[in-house]
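Re: export button greyed out
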Amino acid sequence: AAALEAKVSGFSKKVWKIGADDPRKPAYGVKVGIALTLVSLFYYVRPLYDGVGGNAVWAIMTVVLVFEYTVGGSMYKGLNRLAGTMSGAALALGMHWIASKSGEKLEPFVASGSVILLAATATFSRFIPTVKARFDYGVTVFVMTYSFVAVSGYRVEDLAALVLDRIATIAIGVIICLGVCALICPVWAGQELNLLTARNMEKLAYAVEGCIEDYFAEPSVKRAEAAAKSEGYKSVLGSKASEDSQANLARWEPPHGRFGFGHPYDQYTKVAAAMRHCAYCVESLSSCAGASSRERAPRLLGDACTRVAARCARVLKEASTCVATMTTSRTLGFAVADFNTAVHQLQTDLGNLPFKLAEKTAETSLAEAMQLFTVALLLIEIAASIEGVVHAVGTLATLARF
Amino acid sequence: AAALEAKVSGFSKKVWKIGADDPRKPAYGVKVGIALTLVSLFYYVRPLYDGVGGNAVWAIMTVVLVFEYTVGGSMYKGLNRLAGTMSGAALALGMHWIASKSGEKLEPFVASGSVILLAATATFSRFIPTVKARFDYGVTVFVMTYSFVAVSGYRVEDLAALVLDRIATIAIGVIICLGVCALICPVWAGQELNLLTARNMEKLAYAVEGCIEDYFAEPSVKRAEAAAKSEGYKSVLGSKASEDSQANLARWEPPHGRFGFGHPYDQYTKVAAAMRHCAYCVESLSSCAGASSRERAPRLLGDACTRVAARCARVLKEASTCVATMTTSRTLGFAVADFNTAVHQLQTDLGNLPFKLAEKTAETSLAEAMQLFTVALLLIEIAASIEGVVHAVGTLATLARF
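Workaround output, generated via the alternate export path:
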């Protein structure tokens, strides 16, 4: 019983933490509840019920299915649902007219033949990448509406009225849903994407710095702190999926705040790709640097490498601030200049290394020297990839008119 | 007009290619059509219609919403839909009974209060990772059913009959859907996952080989072929999302063929993580190796590196065959032994490198020598990560009783 109690309390703590970390998540739950209550008014208030009737079910379903966490997600689903319903219904009405001309006997065959044909084509079209990215939900709704209307046509007298009712209730649902989603504490996919990019860039900065500090630190000072910092690059490696989906949804959002019409959301995915390239190198660096069980800190190149890493981190942090605040800063330019000097210095030092090594062969083992070479070269590679990140951020700033 | 024509023909070629590359994709479309036709029989055939009536709509919707490409996907959605509908309906009936005791005036307030409360809680619960992974769709259906039944209770007389009808039609839809999905050319998520893992492992093998061959090749023989081969690791980097979702869906599948009950689908994601670690190193290797604009091939270490790369590739290919055919092979053991010898040889050669370099300082520039060191060390790192892959495959073989 005690074990169960501990488990339950652990679980509820975890759940509480999810809500406390981001209060917009419980707020999302409340927003869904509010939208559902607004929709259910159509059931409770007599005059409204007389207008819509039992079809209010469709409005409730629409709210539950369309209401997403971000405004972009709700817009995507809402517009897809409307477009899918209308096109599916229109096509089905046309088909019904043709089928009804073909006589009572043939009608079911014409109708179900058209259902198979359209469902198969539409379902297959979901494998086309553009359709998948933008209209996946719309195609599902299209197939659903088409088959529903086409099949109902056989038993229902006034098909057009049924279709219009359905479209009207779905429109009511979509409007209530979008209204609540965008007006009460809205969560914009574009802003989330912007923040995620800025935050990942900062994490990358700490990771580059942490890795190098960790490598050149005295092993006795086993800095758990630096090691923990350097883990941040993993979240850069793992956030491709959420970046892609947010960029996709942000496109559906109306202009808001600094995110104007035609905001270059695509460019964010390019910045993210550049960051990921950098993170791959950090991963190699941390596994190369971490492999050794050194007894003492390497003496050579320590200054130059630490300086490059610090400058790399500074450039990334400046770029992150630029993205987060959506401004261009002069400091970024200075930071890049400093950083280039440091990289050049490291390259020169690296060229002189063999002579220095020759002087102290007694102190430095060969394996250590090789590892040092690799760490320095990977750091130079990281510096090159950071230039790519800065370039991508520059393009973003130009396109978005920061 | 000519431009438009070219665009249309280009697009249709692309669509044709999607279908031709994997005939199961158009087959999926046809399967959806068949399932919809079977469901619509409930509308067309008089005795069936008398049994179900206008509620057949729910069966149609269920088929469209539940029918996924893989059996696992359909199982996940179907079972979630059934469970969500039943639990939502049961709770709503209970709530309705309580609300009806509270009198005509209060009833709407009790009902909509409970809707807000439950919708908010359930929606928030979707942020809990376990719920998100396994019951996301079920929670949506639960909220939908609960609000639908709770709200309908105000206007509908025989609520229990409505609920039972709804559950029955949804069950019909789910059963037809799962039947068609699992019996007509089924696509198993587990098999797809197995195949994807094996294929990615093979691509990784070619990438390791290609990178090193490319680096040590005479620049005049600019081998576009090797470069193209070495691109394969990118698909390893990019397939995390699909692996995770397939592993998630495969858990819902009934035992089939060699995929027994409790098949260790989780272990596949671990194999994939090990492969991704290797791919990060390959990415660093290819950007380090590709950075140089050499005028001639490096002479030193060429043999040892090429041998290690070839052995790495062989080990990966053997492991890939093991996964693809689901057998253990003795050849893998031999390949690993060979590979270890080659890595040791490379490490010895690397130790002797400085003496060799001293002999030929005229021929080899410093920058070249440093790059050579880095390439060799990254290759050793890759070899270490391949050991991780082999280990993960071994665990998989044990757990799945290959």
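Chain B has 16 helices and no strands. The button fix ships in the next patch.
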